[in-house]
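Entry 14. Structure prediction run on the chain below.
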Amino acid sequence: MADSYGHREWWKMGNAPYEATLGSLDSHKHKHTYLQSWKMGNTPSEATMGSRLRCSKCRKQLCGCVNHDDYFKIHIYGRYVYKYNGGDYYRPVGADMAYECAPCFHGAPKEELRCTEEARQEARGKAEEELRQAEDAQRQAEEERREAEEERRQAEEAQRQAEEERRQAEQARRQAEEARRCTEVARQEARGKAEEAQRQAADERRQAEEERRQAEQARRQAEEAQRQAEKARKEAEEARRCTEEARREVMNQGWKRAVWNAASSFIFSKCSFILSLLLILSGVCWNYEKWTQIKMDLPILDLDCGGHA
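Output returned:
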């Protein structure tokens, strides 16, 4: 493939020497890669351009290139260009009459790099600002979350305290209820004990009254037995008197009739006397056994029957 000046590119030329394929390093401060150059027998077209060889941007007069060894095809700033006279001026590959002097060639990329760097710095600043804003928003959200968590924790703590206070109040109420119930039970027990003591006292009083009544009854029975004995003695005396009268009557009216009457009276009086003695003895024995039992059951009662007689 031929360039704009009719030269064939070096990689399609079979007779190019090995040295023509060697590149060299540019002394410019920018980093770039040199491509292989070639060597031809005739001179480059820039050698005969004269005043037409100017910078397409600033219209500066450029020096012609008289030797093929003085220009190379390189890749720099992302472009494929020809480098003339060791960097005096440049021309993009495939662009005729688009020569650029070194200041114009390097200035635009530098400006572009500066703008790119400024844009990058600005984008980085914006990104950092956005990142800082995002971090601030995240920090604020974290702070709000912590505040919400703290408020929730405080609410839970307040709820727990309220629950604890309610539980303590409920426990105090139950304790008061238990104390009141215990007091009521103790009062009822005391009242029951008092009533039981009153009942026992009443029972003891009734029992003492009953024993006193029984003792009085025994005393009366003893007096009744004594009266019965006195009555029996009187009857015996009356029977003896009747016998004496019967004897006298026998002596007066006849000994048979008198004997019969005397015997009948004597038998009747003796039977009455014996019956009276049996009644008296049975009453005395019964009263004596009852009184002995009373004295054995209640030793504190010392009732004297003779004193009450």
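Residues 218-308 form one domain.
Filed with the rest of this week's runs.
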